[in-house]
Amino acid sequence: MDLEAARTLLTTALEEARAGRAEGGIPIGAALFDESGALLGRGHNRRVQDGDPSTHAETAAFRAAGRQRTYRGTTMVTTLAPCWYCSGLVRQFGISRVVIGETRTFRGGEEWLAEHGVEIVVVDDAECRGLMREFIAARPEVWFEDIGEASAGS
User: Fold this and answer.
1) CB 78 within 8 A of CB 57
2) For residues 76 and 78, what is the distance between their CA atoms, to the nearest angstrom?
3) Rounded Cα–Cα distance for residues 100 and 92 (Å)
4) pLDDT tens for each residue of 89-122
């Protein structure tokens, strides 16, 4: 996938990240697209809003997509590098490609996914970086209670 196509798909995930921020949550958004580029599902991190540590953006988008006959050829788009939990979801269901808004704030399982045949496209989007940096500066205790804690020790 070329970078321009990836940027186009990223707009949906960014809308979700902004929605999460507006709700007082962690500004991470995601969307799942089929092989033709049609939107299957979208969502944002709702860990804070729902008090549910498993509601990461990628899982919210995946759940919103509902059951699919296959996930081969699908693209998961996320504003932040997927954590190990979400990387496992990509591998478990055979999602073919992951478009990542940014990997500077957090390094997740993207290298592991690439080693296992998942196409990785990093956009390195300034708005994605800004959303996370602002959130971490304002609410470090929320960030470090979950996936941020893993990156603090590395």
Assistant:
1) yes
2) 7
3) 18
4) 999 999 999 999 999 999 999 999 999 999 999 9
- 56, 45 Cβ separation under 8 angstroms: yes
- Residue environment code for 113-132, b if the CB has 16+ CB neighbours within 10 A, otherwise e: beeeebebbbbebeebbebb
Question: Which sequence positions are flagged as catalytic?
Answer: 58
- Beta carbons within 10 angstroms of residue 136's beta carbon: 16
Whole-angstrom distance, CA of residue 7 vs CA of residue 76:
13
Query: Which amino acid does the sequence have at 49?
Result: Q
Helix (H, G, I), strand (E, B) or coil at 6: helix
Tens digits of residue pLDDT in 7-62: 999 999 999 999 999 999 999 999 999 999 999 999 999 999 999 999 999 999 99
Helix, strand, coil shares of the chain, percent, nearest 5, are 45, 15, 40
3-state secondary structure of 58: helix
Which DSSP symbol is given to 115? H
